Amino acid sequence: MAHLRCKIHLTVTDMKKIICVLLIFAMSLLLFACGNNGGETTTAPEISESTSGKAEVSADEIAAAILESAEFEGDLEKSEFPFSTLEKYDVQEAAVEDICWYVGSGAAPDEIAVIKCAGDDELATVYDAIKARIKYLKDGYSDYAPEQVPKIDKACVISNGNLLVYCIGKDVTSVEATVKSLIG
Q1: Domain containing residue 61
Q2: Are the CB atoms for 70 and 167 separated by under 8 Å?
């Protein structure tokens, strides 16, 4: 059997060219991955018209806008089970049409909840649940981290139609303006 032997003779210049091409390829992949933004879009929220002719924005879109406009201690993460917190306060799932809840690590009481209720009676029930939530956090943080209590005392609770927005953070003064800009 004849063996084929191939000698590849690369100069230093050739090696530099190959390395440059590989680096460009690697950097392109890196930029593409970073630009992908984890599957999240950065376009303007899609707004649909309600039967009353007023534009509707989802709870997710309102919460995301609040997350961008207000100041929070640490990173808030979107809850995978946003209704579970309301269940603790005896709110029935049928009372809620749309919900988005962002929570922190627990070191601070910072959180955002945007809840679209099924009707006026349900709004009152959810509002009572949020008041109970604020009291629960205040009682817990009074012993655990008393320096967080003033933040809880300044919790922002906004009600507009069937929408209830609740927010605790370092600086939540922009929340009302943000909500108004989205829902009118």
Answers
A1: 56-183
A2: yes
**pLDDT averaged over consecutive 10-residue blocks of the chain (184 residues)?**
57 70 60 44 34 66 94 92 87 93 93 93 93 95 94 93 94 91 84
124, 161 in Cβ contact below 8 A?
no
Name the DSSP letter for residue 45: P
Q: Do 117 and 94 touch, CB atoms closer than 8 A?
A: no
Output the 3-class SS for 148-184: HHHHHHCCEEEEECCEEEEEECCECCCHHHHHHHHHC
Q: How far apart are CA 134 and CA 167, in angstroms?
A: 10
Residue 106 φ/ψ region, left for φ over 0, alpha for ψ in the -120 to 50 degree band, beta for the rest: left
Q: Is there a domain that residue 152 lies in? A: yes
Number of domains in the chain: 1
Decide if 62 is inside a domain: yes
Closest residue by Cα to residue 176 from 161, 152, 162, 158: 158
- Tell me whether residue 21 is in a domain: no
Can you give the pTM of this predicted structure? 0.69
Query: Which are the contacts of 182, defined by CB distance < 8 A and separation ≥ 6?
Result: 45, 57, 61, 62, 65
